[in-house]
Amino acid sequence: MDSDSAEEDIVLSRNGQRLLGGDGFNRRNDTTKYVFACAIFASLNSVLMGYDVGVMSGAIIFIQEDLNISVLQEEVLVGILSIVSLVGSLAGGKTSDAIGRKWTIALAAFVFQSGAAIMALAPTFRVIMIGRILAGVGIGFGVMIAPVYIAEISPSVARGSLTSFPEIFVNLGILLGYVSNYAFSGLPVHVNWRIMLGVGILPSIFMILALFVIPESPRWLVVQNRIEEARLVLSKTNESESEVEERLREIQLAAGLESEEKYEAKAVWNEIVNPSHPVRKMMIAGCGIQVFQQITGIEAAVYYSPTIFQDAGIKGNSQILGATVGVGITKTLFILVATFLIDRVGRKPLLYVSTVGMTISLLALSLTLSFTSAGKLGIALSILSVCANVAFFSVGIGPICWVLTSELFPLRLRAQASAFGSVGSRVSSGLVTMSFLSVSRAITMGGTFFVFALLSILSVYFVHTCVPETKGKSLEQIEMIFQEEGLWKNDGVELGDVERLVPK
């Protein structure tokens, strides 16, 4: 009996290590649930961002009608959020290093909600702009800090999936924004857009709850020399005591607490502005993928989908907003595909599928808008092309952009470098959204999406030459392998490996 009981108590884990059956399974389940909950709560700010993007695409139609704003004012109102958010992203890196990742998440929610309330109550375009600026700063904080926080608390084996959570919640927010547009579009014009914007305040209730659940990042605690607190957090996010101690030693080494003299002479920003060769490779990959995520036109497709469908020939606000709901559903569903695959097949195969698929979809949309009439066929092809574009975006470059940015940089640079990368994303997004209507009037809507298709081709080449594979590596291991020459070709997944994702 004793031997039988002992056999039942011993279970082999995936890597061959022995764990006590009951305790091992219980601890693994508790750890998984805890990290999962932390990732969800840390991603709630992303719902706010996504909701703002989705709801503004429809609300702008009624704001324009109610407040009689010009096309230029419309572009500024839509695009200013991305430009201003870079202020939050830049400040977010230093803020998160000063007050911690957790409280930076809380600050992001507070600033955004203040802006959303002002927009909902705004009597004039000028007041809306004030609220929009505040919301943009809050989004900048949230966009930068959530992936960093999740990457720092997640075990290596699940880090890719968990770090993609913010992008999932962005897509969920976009879908909710589209649904809100459709639901409230029938109300009087001077009321409906205010309710649409005001509903975005509700997630703040869940953010208050989140602050009582999520811990501080163990890596930030180590940097603050709060070792015992870091050990306590790691004990909740790792499956065994030996793993906790191993991870703690790695973090201490990376933080420079065991070799502090190595980094004393070089300030963080000086190292980013005047990078060493390994850091330069990190900056190219991390910042470049952020820029390509935006210059391929995803936010133009999301913010201006009602305008695109109107140009394709759909009549009536309800029909247009109904079509945008379909775009939101597609975008949300395919981000779940990315979450399932990212730690199974790796980052690069999904990036290849994503960028190649976006190129084809953007080219199809360009040809459809340029050469088909505003009939049923043209409308159907336009909706299909927009949905395909957002689907391919969501399955790859959308979430993986943030995963890579949070993975590539060493601990001493991670927050500041991630903030720097976010600036590229926000500036690119702002330039696209603030110029889309003017450019489309100058070279037609179809011509504009042809330009996006050309930029998407460049993104395929960038992924092939500049982005390494990081699947299955700890953050500290990623830092070490960047010291090796030829990493991107020898250690990364090459273009041919994308065949694993394509059914025979």
UniProtKB/TrEMBL annotation:
The keyword Hydrolase does not apply. It comes from the Eukaryota. Coiled coil: none annotated. GO terms for cellular component: membrane. The keyword Membrane applies. InterPro entries: MFS_dom, MFS_sugar_transport-like, MFS_trans_sf, Myo-inositol_Transporter, Sugar/inositol_transpt, Sugar_transporter_CS. The chain crosses the membrane at residues 34-63, 75-91, 103-122, 129-150, 162-183, 195-214, 320-342, 349-371, 377-405, 443-463. It holds the Pfam family Sugar_tr. Its main location: membrane. It is found in: Membrane. Residues 38-471 form the Major facilitator superfamily (MFS) profile domain. One of its GO terms (molecular function) is symporter activity. It is a multi-pass membrane protein. Keywords: Membrane, Sugar transport, Symport, Transmembrane, Transmembrane helix, Transport. Belongs to the major facilitator superfamily. Sugar transporter (TC 2.A.1.1) family. This is Major facilitator superfamily (MFS) profile domain-containing protein. It comes from Erythroxylum novogranatense.
